[in-house]
Design goal:
Coenzyme Q-binding protein COQ10 START domain-containing protein, Alpha-D-Glucose-1,6-Bisphosphate, Chain A, domain 4, alpha+beta, 41% strand, 26% helix
Length: 152
């Protein structure tokens, strides 16, 4: 299943990139619904400083920032600094999880942000795929609203 979401952020690409690759920015986008930990021993990383293609370990997803409910076995498969990253991972709930975020500068100094999420739930959740697609679509719409609001 594929979900896509795009927004225009009223800030230059350098500022937007710095925000979307930093753990603080990622967690701010996801709040208040959830947060994501940094894999143990990798606390000082950002997406643009990780070794590409190397599994980083488990990043725990916490409901409301408190209750662990899933993990992302995180790998950044591709990285083009200030332009895009592509995460290819597995999760406790997902056989396949891909998140590709692309940034594009506009002439007026704003930045286009596009997310493409590809997921395949593990067998027990397969019947819930349409529900998961709606929830993930709403969640990424929330993330985009929070990112846009940060720069307003």
């Amino acid at each position: 299943m594929i979900i896509e979401r795009s927004s225009v952020v009223g800030a230059p690409i350098g500022q937007v990139w710095a925000r979307v690759v930093a753990p603080e920015g990622i967690n701010d986008e996801m709040r208040p619904w959830m947060t994501m930990s940094i894999p143990r021993g990798r606390e000082s990383i950002t997406i643009d400083t990780v070794p590409v293609g190397e599994p980083l370990g488990r990043a725990w997803l916490r409901l409301f920032g408190l209750v662990p409910f899933d993990y992302d076995d995180l790998t950044i498969a591709e990285l083009e600094p200030y332009r895009r990253f592509h995460e290819k991972s597995t999760m406790l709930s997902m056989r396949r999880w891909e998140h590709e975020r692309t940034l594009r500068p506009f002439d007026d100094g704003s930045t286009g942000v596009h997310d493409r999420i590809t997921f395949e739930p593990r067998l027990p959740l397969v019947p819930l795929t349409p529900v998961l697609a709606r929830v993930l679509g709403a969640f990424f719409a929330h993330r985009h609203r929070r990112l846009v609001r940060h720069f307003t």
